Amino acid sequence: MSKVAIVYHSGFGHTQALAEAVAAGARAVASTSVSLIPVAEAEARAAELDAADAIVFGSPTYMGGLSAEFARFKDWTSSRWMQGAWRNKLAAGFTVSASWNGDKHNTLYQLLTLAVQHGMIWIGLGLPPGNNSSTGSIADLNRLGASIGAMGQANADQGVEGIAASDFKTFEALGRRVAEATQRWHEAPQRLAA
Ligand SMILES: Cc1cc2nc3c(=O)[nH]c(=O)nc-3n(C[C@H](O)[C@H](O)[C@H](O)COP(=O)(O)O)c2cc1C
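A: This is the predicted complex of the input protein with flavin mononucleotide.
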């Protein structure tokens, strides 16, 4: 059984809904256990994070970067850094904002930097860009054309119904990709030992 933890902050529910899509994608991969951890519970659930083979980080984009709550969690992870507790775990990230661009890239870079500071191994989205040709549409997977992680767009005046179905599918694909990579990663030492 390989273990994937998803740690996220969500002020208004959009990131949470997309975190659940990442979890659903990961759970669809056999022999994968998934922990969905709001940042407010991260300290109390540190053992789950330490035991995970992969940690997926999710933050909304606020003022062009991580939310303050996620940034607080980021700084708390220095305690894990001191012990090298997350070294060589797999990592990935996702974000959502109201604007199509919204400076989401900056948030993903912050998540990537956090992961590599910990010595983690980053997994990108791995999907071709969608919605970038005359035959494309917002129904395409990866409609926002991200590579570093998953990007979603949620209309500012709506709840989760303001998130396109294609975004949920894109986030599910990230969860599946992380779980599949985790399985290979988890089994590698056993294969080498055999
Ligand atoms: C404090 C704050 C700052 C925001 N800054 C941005 C921003 O820089 N770019 C953007 O496109 N949307 C911005 N938004 C909109 C949020 O990114 C968007 O509503 C997102 O879906 C919120 O996710 P959540 O429901 O998980 O908190 C901001 C919202 C808030 C509350």
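The chain has seven helices and seven strands. The first strand starts at residue 2 and ends at 8.
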